[in-house]
Specification:
Blueprint (H helix, E strand, L loop, with lengths): L1 H18 L2 H10 L7 H11 L2 H24 L5 H30 L4 H30 L1 H19 L20 H20 L1 H17 L1 H13 L4 H25 L4 H21 L3 H29 L5 H13 L2 H14 L1 H22 L1 H4 L3
Helix pairs in contact: 1-2, 1-6, 1-7, 1-10, 2-5, 2-15, 3-5, 3-14, 4-5, 4-7, 5-14, 6-7, 6-11, 6-13, 9-13, 9-14, 9-15, 9-16, 10-11, 10-15, 11-13, 12-13, 12-16, 15-16
Protein name: Major facilitator superfamily (MFS) profile domain-containing protein
Main location: membrane
InterPro entries: MFS, MFS_dom, MFS_trans_sf
């Protein structure tokens, strides 16, 4: 996760540094979302069929190779914005195939009884990396250049692969009754049949459906700010990469606090906490859009991170708890699709930022997020009253 946070900062800042275009910044970041439109469904089937740990390790090795490739391009002064677009698409492919296995592995490690605490602590660990990694990346970028950041990203990815070797769990899940040894057309039909069964299962579970819609809305409306942050740092605040690193780190501090709270809070009133967290995120983004002062933005990052962590943790926990084990990989793959639909927020926000400025773009997204959260609060009691 440290590598991912460093990459988010470095890739975005490097693109904007080279091209000074909000549209290109949005396009490059959207590249990672393109594979997420379809591939998570196949990743979910893989997660329900084969050793999840091996899938995770393959993804970590791929991430390292991509980072080292960008490092070489920067060092040889051949880097262009479209190279970063290609690397973004490749990283999205890796993420789409790996993350369903990663998320579905957690209940195997801890069991359902400790799932909420485990996911909260997992989010806390990710938040801790958000706290430190962007600042490190910002300092490295500012003083030693982007190539060294990508070198470190590759090393960290390899390190995570080695660490995964030491994970011990309760064995693989029981596969479906279909034969997985069918080759050719039969194998493809089985794969598509598994995907279809997963979609039908989600459709039959109303609470899971609403939670997935909520996850999609918050991804489309809240996440684009992370990718458009270079516009604020450069054009609104007139500062450098170190300042962007501080913003992301303070957001990580808020997320860490939110994750620890969820872990300690238990299972009471989780639906209300989820929706309050979404309201807090929307109001924080609105504050960033309205107040063009850097130190105020730093302060707004704390509630933004807190709301983001509580929302993300609770949605994921409830979806996992309500899903049957044999469908869990496929359900989580559908959950991962919401990242593929992020362009619905990032691309328009990038274009609006070119035309009217980043503040207008984020302000519109913030208002829409508040409206969607209000709709869920008043019209979906099942989510609001979830325990």
């Amino acid at each position: 996760m440290s590598a991912m946070q460093m990459q988010m900062l470095s890739r975005g800042y490097l693109v904007y540094d080279m091209e000074s275009s909000g549209s290109l910044l949005g396009l490059v970041n959207v590249g990672a979302s393109i594979p997420m439109l379809v591939l998570p469904l196949f990743g979910g089937v893989l997660a329900d069929r084969i050793n999840r740990k091996r899938i995770i390790q393959a993804g970590q090795i791929a991430a390292a190779l991509i980072a080292f490739s960008v490092f070489v391009l920067i060092r040889t002064e051949r880097i262009e914005w479209f190279h970063l677009l290609v690397s973004s698409i490749m990283q999205g492919t890796m993420f789409a195939l790996m993350m369903p296995a990663r998320q579905a592995l957690i209940p195997q490690l801890v069991g359902k009884g400790l799932l909420s605490n485990a996911l909260a602590l997992n989010t806390a660990a990710m938040s801790a990396t958000t706290l430190a990694a962007p600042s490190v990346a910002g300092v490295l970028y500012g003083y030693f250049g982007p190539s060294n950041v990508y070198l470190l990203i590759g090393i960290l990815s390899l390190g995570s692969c080695i660490a995964t070797l030491f994970i011990r769990h309760n064995g693989d899940i029981e596969p479906d009754s279909k034969s997985h040894n069918v080759e050719g057309k039969g194998a493809i039909n089985n794969l598509l049949s598994d995907i279809s069964e997963g979609l039908k299962y989600v459709k039959s579970q109303r609470l899971i459906m609403v939670l997935l819609i909520m996850a999609l809305a918050t991804t489309v409306l809240a996440q684009p700010f992370r990718f458009l942050m270079p516009i604020f740092v450069v054009d609104v605040y007139n500062l450098g990469p170190e300042s962007m690193g501080l913003l992301m780190s303070v957001m990580g501090l808020g997320a860490l606090a939110g994750s620890i709270y969820i872990a300690a809070h238990g299972n009471k009133n989780r639906g209300r906490i989820l929706l309050v967290g979404s309201f807090v995120s929307g109001l924080s983004l609105l504050g960033v859009a309205v107040v063009p002062i850097y130190m105020w933005a730093v302060l707004f990052m704390i509630p933004l991170g807190l709301g983001d962590a509580s929302r993300r943790t609770i949605i994921m926990t409830l979806i996992m708890e309500k899903s049957e084990e044999r469908y869990r990989g496929r359900v989580m793959s559908i959950f991962m699709l919401n990242f593929g639909l992020m362009p619905l927020g990032v691309l328009p926000a990038g274009v609006i930022s070119d035309l009217f400025g980043g503040q207008m773009a984020i302000g519109i997204l913030a208002v829409l997020l508040i409206m969607v959260t209000s709709w869920v609060w008043f019209y979906h009691d099942g989510v609001r009253n979830s325990q």
